Amino acid sequence: DRERVSRHQTLLSSLARLDSISWLPDESKAPPSATALVGELNLFIPMEGLIDAAAEIKRLDKEMDRLRKDLERTQGKLTNPNFVDRAPAEIVKKEQERLNQMIGALEKLTAQRERVEWISVSVNEKFL
Predict the structure, then answer these.
(1) Burial class (CB in 10 A: 0-12, 13-18, 19+), 83
(2) Which pTM value belongs to this model?
(3) What digits encode the pLDDT tens for the residues 11-34?
(4) Which residues contact 57 (CB under 8 A, 6 or more apart)?
(5) How far is it, in rounded angstroms, from Cα 47 to Cα 33?
(6) What is the pLDDT of residues 5-14, one digit of tens each?
(7) How far is CA 43 from the centre of its chain?
(8) 3 state DSSP class of 45
Protein backbone atom coordinates (compact mmCIF):
# COMPACT_ATOMS: atom_id res chain seq x y z
CA ASP A 1 0.00 0.00 0.00
CA ARG A 2 2.78 2.44 0.87
CA GLU A 3 4.61 1.76 -2.39
CA ARG A 4 1.42 2.16 -4.44
CA VAL A 5 0.47 5.41 -2.68
CA SER A 6 4.01 6.72 -3.11
CA ARG A 7 4.01 5.85 -6.81
CA HIS A 8 0.67 7.61 -7.38
CA GLN A 9 0.95 10.40 -4.80
CA THR A 10 0.92 13.22 -7.37
CA LEU A 11 -2.18 11.86 -9.09
CA LEU A 12 -3.97 11.13 -5.79
CA SER A 13 -3.17 14.59 -4.45
CA SER A 14 -4.41 16.24 -7.62
CA LEU A 15 -7.62 14.23 -8.01
CA ALA A 16 -8.58 14.32 -4.34
CA ARG A 17 -7.23 17.85 -3.76
CA LEU A 18 -5.12 16.62 -0.87
CA ASP A 19 -2.80 18.91 1.06
CA SER A 20 -0.73 15.96 2.19
CA ILE A 21 -0.64 12.20 2.56
CA SER A 22 0.75 10.77 5.77
CA TRP A 23 0.82 7.42 7.53
CA LEU A 24 -0.31 6.83 11.10
CA PRO A 25 1.64 4.35 13.18
CA ASP A 26 -0.52 1.32 14.00
CA GLU A 27 -0.84 2.30 17.66
CA SER A 28 -1.88 5.90 16.91
CA LYS A 29 -5.36 7.20 17.49
CA ALA A 30 -6.91 8.59 14.31
CA PRO A 31 -8.37 12.10 14.44
CA PRO A 32 -12.13 12.58 13.81
CA SER A 33 -12.29 11.62 10.17
CA ALA A 34 -14.33 10.41 7.28
CA THR A 35 -13.12 6.84 6.81
CA ALA A 36 -12.91 4.45 3.87
CA LEU A 37 -11.53 0.94 3.62
CA VAL A 38 -9.63 -0.02 0.48
CA GLY A 39 -8.58 -3.63 0.81
CA GLU A 40 -6.56 -3.70 4.02
CA LEU A 41 -5.83 0.03 3.83
CA ASN A 42 -7.81 2.40 6.07
CA LEU A 43 -8.09 5.89 4.63
CA PHE A 44 -8.79 8.73 7.04
CA ILE A 45 -9.78 12.19 5.85
CA PRO A 46 -9.54 14.49 8.89
CA MET A 47 -12.57 16.73 9.41
CA GLU A 48 -10.61 19.38 11.30
CA GLY A 49 -10.59 22.65 9.44
CA LEU A 50 -13.28 21.66 6.97
CA ILE A 51 -16.03 23.34 8.97
CA ASP A 52 -16.15 25.96 11.70
CA ALA A 53 -17.77 23.76 14.33
CA ALA A 54 -18.79 26.65 16.62
CA ALA A 55 -20.46 28.54 13.77
CA GLU A 56 -22.20 25.39 12.54
CA ILE A 57 -23.49 24.60 16.04
CA LYS A 58 -24.78 28.16 16.34
CA ARG A 59 -26.51 27.90 12.95
CA LEU A 60 -28.06 24.52 13.85
CA ASP A 61 -29.24 25.87 17.23
CA LYS A 62 -30.90 28.83 15.52
CA GLU A 63 -32.63 26.57 12.99
CA MET A 64 -33.72 24.15 15.72
CA ASP A 65 -35.16 27.03 17.81
CA ARG A 66 -37.12 28.31 14.80
CA LEU A 67 -38.39 24.81 14.10
CA ARG A 68 -39.39 24.22 17.75
CA LYS A 69 -41.44 27.44 17.77
CA ASP A 70 -43.17 26.48 14.53
CA LEU A 71 -43.75 22.97 15.87
CA GLU A 72 -45.27 24.42 19.05
CA ARG A 73 -47.67 26.60 17.04
CA THR A 74 -48.73 23.65 14.88
CA GLN A 75 -49.23 21.42 17.91
CA GLY A 76 -51.32 24.20 19.46
CA LYS A 77 -53.58 24.25 16.40
CA LEU A 78 -53.98 20.49 16.39
CA THR A 79 -54.81 20.33 20.10
CA ASN A 80 -57.32 23.19 19.80
CA PRO A 81 -60.80 21.61 19.52
CA ASN A 82 -62.13 24.71 17.73
CA PHE A 83 -59.57 24.37 14.95
CA VAL A 84 -59.97 20.61 14.56
CA ASP A 85 -63.79 20.75 14.57
CA ARG A 86 -64.19 23.78 12.28
CA ALA A 87 -61.33 23.42 9.79
CA PRO A 88 -61.82 21.27 6.69
CA ALA A 89 -60.43 17.75 7.12
CA GLU A 90 -57.85 18.31 4.38
CA ILE A 91 -56.43 21.34 6.26
CA VAL A 92 -56.21 19.35 9.50
CA LYS A 93 -54.51 16.53 7.60
CA LYS A 94 -52.00 18.96 6.03
CA GLU A 95 -51.21 20.40 9.45
CA GLN A 96 -50.66 16.89 10.84
CA GLU A 97 -48.36 16.07 7.92
CA ARG A 98 -46.51 19.34 8.47
CA LEU A 99 -46.14 18.47 12.16
CA ASN A 100 -44.68 15.06 11.28
CA GLN A 101 -42.24 16.66 8.81
CA MET A 102 -41.11 19.16 11.42
CA ILE A 103 -40.56 16.40 13.98
CA GLY A 104 -38.45 14.49 11.46
CA ALA A 105 -36.47 17.61 10.54
CA LEU A 106 -35.84 18.39 14.20
CA GLU A 107 -34.56 14.85 14.78
CA LYS A 108 -32.17 15.18 11.82
CA LEU A 109 -30.92 18.58 12.97
CA THR A 110 -30.38 17.25 16.50
CA ALA A 111 -28.37 14.30 15.17
CA GLN A 112 -26.32 16.63 12.95
CA ARG A 113 -25.62 18.93 15.89
CA GLU A 114 -24.43 15.98 17.97
CA ARG A 115 -22.06 14.92 15.17
CA VAL A 116 -20.65 18.44 14.81
CA GLU A 117 -20.31 18.77 18.57
CA TRP A 118 -18.50 15.41 18.72
CA ILE A 119 -16.10 16.52 16.00
CA SER A 120 -15.54 19.81 17.81
CA VAL A 121 -14.73 18.08 21.11
CA SER A 122 -12.61 15.37 19.45
CA VAL A 123 -10.55 17.85 17.47
CA ASN A 124 -9.58 19.55 20.69
CA GLU A 125 -8.16 16.31 22.11
CA LYS A 126 -4.49 15.55 21.65
CA PHE A 127 -3.81 12.58 19.42
CA LEU A 128 -0.84 10.35 20.13
Answers:
(1) middle
(2) 0.61
(3) 988 998 888 888 888 777 777 666
(4) 113, 116, 117, 120
(5) 5
(6) 899 999 988 9
(7) 20
(8) strand
